[in-house]
C-alpha cells in the first residue's frame, strides 16, 4: 500500500486517488472471483512463487480488464527473478503440454487453449534508434518493469503471493487513467514511442477498443515520430491494423492513424483519400470519411475481420480514377477494376495471406455489381451472374454493399436501401429455385469427352461453358437432364 500511495501522491489528486485506491483494494478480490480459470491460475502461480521465495505478480492487460469488467483472454505473470525457470515449473503444475522460451528476453509462453500464460522476468530494455528490438535486457524490480510498459492502464500489477494476494501496485496512476478513460504513457511519450514505434499503432487500437482518449502529449509525440513506424516489420503493423478493424468502432483508431500522419506510412492508399471530394448527394463529401463510415457500418453487420478489411479498401482506387464531370461533379469510372489490381501490390507489402488477398480483390471488383442491380431493371439472369461470380462470398458481398449505402440525406438512404433489399430478396428466391451455391455445369468435362468422343482440350471447355451460360440466362433448368439434352443439341456446332 505504501508503494501505491507514494507513486500516486507525486502525480495528481492525492486525496481523491487515495480513497479510490482503498476502495479498489477492497474490491479487487471480488472482481477476480467470477473468472474461475484465471483465479485458479493465479493461485497456482502465487503458491509456486512463495515456495521459490520470489516476488510474483499478474500484470498488464489482465489487471486492466478486471477493472473494466472485460473477459480475461490471457495471463501475464511477472516474477522478480528467472522467468523461464519459473515457467518450466509452472507448466508442470498447470499440467500444460509445453512452454515456448525466449531466452533473450527472459520470457516464456505456456500456450493453453483455454487461458494462455506468459511469464516474464522483471526487466528494463535498451534500444537502438533504427530498431524496435531491444539491444540490452537487464533484470530490475517491480517499478522498473512497470515503467517500460506502453500505457499506465497496462502498467499495474497485482501481487499473487498467498500472503499478499490481491494487493494492487499502481505507482503510475493507471487506476486514475481508467477512471478518466484516457491513454497516457508511463514515461515521456517521446521515450515510450521512440523505444517501440509499434506502440503508436497500439495507441490507436486501445483507443478504438476501449473508447479511451489519448492525451495531447501522446498525440503530439505520435505525429512528430510517425516516420519511425517504418522500422517496424510489416507483419507486426498488419497485425495491429487487423486488431483495429476487429474493434466495435474501427473508425476511432483509423482516424487517429490519419490525424497523426501514421496512415501515410501504414496505408498510404487510404491516407490519400483524405480531403478528396466526391458526389455530395450520395456520399460524404470526403472519400476518407465515407470509407470510415462504410467500415463502421460493416462492423455493425459482421464480426468478420475480412469483411471490415474489404470495406476499408473497396474504394481504394477512387483517388486515382477521380475525374471532374460537369453534370455529376465527379466520376470514378473503373475504380472497382483498378482497385482490385492495386491490391496485389498492397497485399505483397503488408504480407497478407494469399487467401485474404484474393478475397479483398473479389470484394473490391464486385462491390458495385449488386448495387447496380438495384438501379436498373432486375432480371433473373443478371442476379444469377452476380451470385455465381461471388460464389461462397455472396453473403459477405451483400454485407459490404449494404454497408456502402451512406448519405447525409436519410430519404435517399431509405429509398436506396429499399431497392437493395428487393435485390437481396430476389437473390434468395433465385438461390432457392436454382440451387446455385457452388454452381457448375451438371454435366462434367469427362462425360462431355465420352459422349462427344473428345480428348481434353479447348472444345470440351467451350461446350461446358455454353451449358453454364444457358443455365445462367435461364434458357434451361439447372438440372442434369436439361444440361445433358442441351449438350446433345449443341455439341455438333463445336465439334464440326
Fraction in helix? 55-70%
Q: Regarding quaternary structure, how should these chains be classified? A: single chain
Low-confidence stretches: 1-26
Whole-Å distance between the termini?
93 Å
Largest sheet: 7 strands, mixed
Query: What spatial order of strands do you see in the largest sheet?
Result: 3-4-5-2-1-8-9
CATH homolog superfamily of the largest domain? Beta Polymerase, domain 2
In CATH, what is the class of the largest domain?
A: Alpha Beta
Number of strands: 13
CATH fold description of the largest domain: Beta Polymerase, domain 2
Number of structural domains = 3
Q: What is the count of DSSP helices, taking H or I runs of 4+ residues?
A: 26
Approximate shape: elongated
Share of β-strand residues: 5-15%
Instruction: Return the CATH architecture of the largest domain.
Output: 2-Layer Sandwich
Q: Give the C-alpha Rg.
A: 29 Å
The structure class reads: alpha+beta
Q: Output mean pLDDT.
A: 84
Amino acid at each position: 500500500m505504501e508503494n501505491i500511495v507514494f507513486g500516486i501522491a507525486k502525480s495528481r489528486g492525492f486525496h481523491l486517488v487515495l480513497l479510490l485506491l482503498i476502495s479498489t483494494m477492497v474490491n479487487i478480490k471480488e472482481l477476480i472471483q467470477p473468472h474461475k480459470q484465471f483465479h485458479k491460475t493465479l493461485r497456482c502461480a502465487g503458491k509456486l512463487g512463495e515456495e521459490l521465495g520470489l516476488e510474483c505478480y499478474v500484470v498488464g492487460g489482465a489487471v486492466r480488464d478486471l477493472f473494466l469488467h472485460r473477459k480475461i483472454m490471457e495471463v501475464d505473470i511477472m516474477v522478480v527473478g528467472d522467468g523461464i525457470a519459473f515457467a518450466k515449473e509452472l507448466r508442470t503444475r498447470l499440467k500444460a503440454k509445453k512452454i515456448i522460451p525466449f531466452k533473450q528476453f527472459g520470457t516464456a509462453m505456456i500456450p493453453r487453449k483455454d487461458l494462455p500464460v506468459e511469464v516474464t522476468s522483471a526487466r528494463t530494455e535498451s534500444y537502438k534508434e533504427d530498431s524496435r528490438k531491444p539491444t540490452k535486457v537487464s533484470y530490475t524490480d517491480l517499478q522498473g518493469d512497470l515503467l517500460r510498459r506502453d500505457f499506465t492502464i497496462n502498467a499495474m500489477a497485482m501481487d499473487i503471493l498467498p500472503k499478499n494476494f490481491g494487493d494492487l501496485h499502481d505507482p503510475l496512476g493507471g487506476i486514475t487513467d481508467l477512471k478518466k478513460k484516457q491513454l497516457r504513457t508511463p514515461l515521456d511519450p517521446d521515450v515510450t514511442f521512440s523505444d517501440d514505434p509499434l506502440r503508436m499503432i497500439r495507441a490507436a487500437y486501445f483507443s478504438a477498443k476501449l473508447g479511451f482518449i489519448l492525451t495531447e502529449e501522446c498525440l503530439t509525440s505520435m505525429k512528430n515520430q510517425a516516420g519511425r513506424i517504418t522500422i517496424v516489420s510489416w507483419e507486426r503493423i498488419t497485425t495491429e491494423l487487423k486488431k483495429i478493424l476487429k474493434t466495435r468502432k474501427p473508425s476511432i483508431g483509423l482516424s487517429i492513424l490519419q490525424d497523426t500522419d501514421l496512415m501515410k506510412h501504414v496505408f498510404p492508399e487510404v491516407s490519400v483519400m483524405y480531403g478528396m471530394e466526391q458526389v455530395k448527394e450520395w456520399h460524404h463529401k470526403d472519400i476518407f470519411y465515407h470509407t470510415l463510415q462504410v467500415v463502421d457500418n460493416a462492423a455493425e453487420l459482421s464480426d468478420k475481420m475480412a469483411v471490415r478489411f474489404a470495406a476499408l479498401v473497396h474504394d481504394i482506387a477512387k483517388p486515382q480514377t477521380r475525374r471532374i464531370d460537369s453534370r455529376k461533379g465527379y466520376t470514378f469510372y473503373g475504380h472497382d477494376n483498378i482497385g482490385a489490381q492495386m491490391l496485389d501490390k498492397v497485399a505483397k507489402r503488408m504480407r497478407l495471406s494469399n487467401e485474404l488477398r484474393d478475397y479483398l480483390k473479389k470484394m473490391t471488383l464486385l462491390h458495385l455489381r449488386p448495387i447496380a442491380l438495384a438501379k436498373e431493371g432486375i432480371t433473373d439472369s443478371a442476379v444469377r451472374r452476380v451470385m455465381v461470380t461471388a460464389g461462397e462470398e455472396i453473403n459477405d458481398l451483400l454485407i459490404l454493399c449494404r454497408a456502402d449505402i451512406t448519405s447525409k440525406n436519410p430519404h435517399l438512404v431509405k429509398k436506396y436501401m429499399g431497392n437493395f433489399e428487393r435485390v437481396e430478396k430476389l437473390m434468395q428466391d433465385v438461390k432457392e429455385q436454382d440451387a446455385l451455391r457452388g454452381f457448375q455445369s451438371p454435366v462434367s468435362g469427362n462425360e462431355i469427352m465420352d459422349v462427344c468422343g473428345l480428348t481434353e482440350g479447348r472444345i470440351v471447355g467451350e461446350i461446358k461453358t455454353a451449358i453454364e451460360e444457358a443455365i445462367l440466362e435461364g434458357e434451361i433448368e439447372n438440372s442434369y437432364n436439361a444440361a445433358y439434352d442441351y449438350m446433345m443439341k449443341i455439341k455438333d456446332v463445336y465439334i464440326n
